[in-house]
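> forwarded from #structure-qc
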């Protein structure tokens, strides 16, 4: 599909903003590096200079992981907001992040000697937790093979509350690793390496390709399930595929970067101001999410160098007030519940 006019211009602006934010982030850190040095290191590639080592081995995988994580969370948020017809929905509403978090916490505490295809215990346990959670949520919310939006939301909230309690209990019982668990729970990219980038990238590409393939179906679902069915949409199939895609994207992001909240809620809502068409909203949210996360990581590394502020704290400081603002707008507009009208 060819995007024209304001939507095409927005995509172009976001793409340029992403390139500039990546360049800025590569220059930012305890060691100041000029844009010219960054470009030189990227062009020369295998240069053995200290500056090239910092850029190629430390900062570049970190920036790329931040961009992949932000894109995955933003697209997941755009999907869930469309499926649940609620601009307040985010990737954590169906409990996937809590399942991924429990898996990661168990991997951190138990430290099992597990590896599959080069992946260690942390990403494997985290992804397994995410998918097991969505299986449980779908089973709890389904009656005779069908699940309403309300039942999915309630099952997700219940699963999230239960899993959070389990995480708290496990952390309390194994207090010797509380600090390590805490650092992962608030999210960040200080541990980024090329292996994590290569792990997260295929899931992100697959999730975004699937979401674009179902973009028209998602447009129909925002009109209501009955209307979508009258338009010829296979509602159960489309909803299940989209929810699973959101789970894949969220699970991948959480397993590689920890808990980073509000990116999936804020960026799709901002992009929706330009157009609610998901054929535009999905790619624009991906770019905007990448820009927001890369810039947030750059801020975290520049406030108190050489110390870093976890990215999850920055996104919560920005996203928390934005969530309150959206809630107040919804109340003034007379909207309530998960079936509210999209804004």
């Amino acid at each position: 599909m060819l995007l024209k006019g304001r939507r095409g211009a927005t995509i172009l602006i976001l793409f340029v903003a992403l390139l500039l934010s990546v360049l800025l982030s590569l220059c930012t850190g305890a060691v100041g590096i000029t844009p010219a040095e960054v470009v030189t290191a990227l062009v020369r590639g295998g240069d053995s200079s200290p500056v090239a080592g910092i850029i190629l081995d430390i900062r570049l995988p970190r920036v790329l992981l931040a961009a992949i994580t932000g894109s995955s969370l933003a697209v997941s948020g755009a999907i869930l907001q469309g499926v649940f017809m609620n601009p307040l929905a985010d990737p954590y509403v169906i409990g996937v992040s809590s399942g991924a978090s429990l898996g990661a916490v168990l991997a951190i505490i138990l430290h099992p000697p597990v590896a599959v295809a080069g992946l260690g215990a942390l990403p494997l346990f985290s992804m397994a937790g995410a998918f097991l959670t969505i299986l449980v949520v779908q089973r709890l919310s389904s009656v005779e093979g069908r699940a309403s939006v309300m039942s999915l939301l309630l099952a997700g909230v219940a699963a999230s509350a239960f899993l959070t309690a389990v995480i708290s209990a496990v952390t309390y019982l194994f207090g010797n690793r509380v600090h390590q668990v805490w650092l992962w729970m608030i999210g960040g990219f200080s541990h980024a390496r090329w292996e994590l980038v290569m792990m997260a990238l295929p899931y992100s590409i697959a999730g975004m390709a699937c979401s674009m393939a179902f973009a028209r179906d998602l447009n129909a679902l925002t009109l209501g399930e009955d209307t979508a069915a009258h338009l010829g949409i296979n509602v159960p199939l489309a909803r299940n595929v989209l929810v699973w895609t959101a789970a894949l994207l969220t699970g991948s992001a959480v397993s590689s970067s920890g808990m980073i909240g509000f990116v999936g809620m804020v960026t799709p809502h901002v992009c929706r101001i330009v157009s609610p068409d998901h054929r535009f909203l999905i790619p624009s949210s991906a770019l905007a999410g990448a820009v927001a996360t890369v810039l947030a990581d750059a801020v975290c590394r520049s406030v108190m160098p050489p110390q870093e502020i976890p990215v999850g704290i920055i996104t919560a400081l920005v996203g928390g007030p934005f969530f309150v603002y959206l809630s107040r707008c919804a109340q003034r507009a007379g909207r309530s519940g998960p079936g509210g009208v999209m804004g």
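QC bot note: The first helix runs from residue 5 to 27. The chain has 14 helices and no strands.
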